[in-house]
Amino acid sequence: MFCMKGRVFSGARPTGRQHIGNYLGAIQNYVKLQDDYDCIYCIVDIHALTTLEETSVLQDNIREMMLDWLAAGLDPARSILFVQSHVPEVMELHTLLSMVTPLSWLLRVATFKEKAKQQPQNVNYGLVGYPVLMTADIVLYKADTVPVGEDQLPHLELAREIVRRFHTFFGATFPEPNAKLTDFPLVMGLDGARKMSKSLDNQIELAASPKDTAKRVMTAVTDPARRYRTDPGHPTICNVFTLHHFFNDGLVSQIERECMAADRGCVACKQQLAQGINGSLQPFRDRRAEIAARRGYVEEVMADGARRARAIAVETLKEVKYKMRLLPR
Ligand code: AMP
Ligand code: TRP
Q1: Would you say the CB of residue 22 lies under 6 angstroms from ligand 1?
Q2: Are 132 and 106 in contact (CB under 8 A)?
Q3: Do residues 18 and 126 share a domain?
Q4: What do you get for the CA distance between the two ends of the chain, in Å?
Q5: Would you say residue 1 lies in a domain?
Q6: pTM for this prediction
Q7: 274/319 Cα distance (integer angstroms)
Q8: Average pLDDT value for residue range 23-40
Q9: What would the pLDDT profile of 164-195 be if each residue is shown by its tens digit?
Q10: Which atom of ligand 1 sits closest to the CA of residue 15?
Q11: Nearest ligand to the C-alpha of residue 191?
Q12: Which of 99, 144, 209, 231 is at 20 to 30 A from 119, Cα to Cα?
């Protein structure tokens, strides 16, 4: 199966039900890449432990996320879909790579400094090693292409540096992984001011009911300068308008015109957005419900994914140990 095509690996933390930011910024891209690459997609539960103090939600989050992936079109017949901790070789490789990674490189990573500030009570060792584990994820499967958002570029650069350093000590072993930026800009949340994110509670979940979707969309912040219905709006600074591009593509110029002329109000505009979202997502929601009703199916997909991932992982780890002289020549 894995021969001439390039190999894609990407990971995402198990945040539970996915929102339209995850969909437009990551999942949609994962689905498309399946046509041109051999793809491996991983739910990185070990990475999640670096910031989770409460782990009781972890299993639910993994299942909900996998359901979203499957319903969105990630295809277990073509791609490997698995959970990070189900292939424990990644932790072994993480330890081995940590021996060639200078601590100074890790301490200057911006995300580490940010997290340390955000959770001063829990600046754990795993948090420092986060990019080393991420490197292990990628190189364990010898992936050459890594689809990520812009925020992950420093991690990818570090992965390349770790690979190069490993090579200077032990010889060429891995491809240097290249980032492949998703073509979508950051999707802003319902507050219109910050990135759509579950932790900010400004998200629209893909799997929400049409009614809940409409209710949440009605809370969206529009153009703050538009105080009265008769004020002309400024669509270019309105996140509801931006979202219309994704879900009501054919209506965008009409919406823009009407908003600028104060011919349409924000309430009607949001109702129309909710309709557009609900209409576009209905096939996804039907598929999701159908998959969720198949008993044991998600577990089967994850077990099969882990089995196929592991077959690759075991081979890479053997090669690494051999090169590091942990195995006799
Ligand atoms: P997270 O849930 O933050 O771990 O993100 C999972 C993936 O979704 C990452 O690849 C992000 O780049 C992408 N993503 C998350 N939130 C957004 C957003 N608001 N806009 C665009 N992409 C996003
Ligand atoms: N750090 C990534 C994020 O927070 C998740 C991740 C873990 C990842 N391992 C990876 C992404 C390997 C790409 C490749 O989004």
Answers
A1: yes
A2: yes
A3: yes
A4: 30
A5: no
A6: 0.95
A7: 53
A8: 96
A9: 999 999 999 999 999 999 877 689 999 999 99
A10: 2
A11: 1
A12: 99
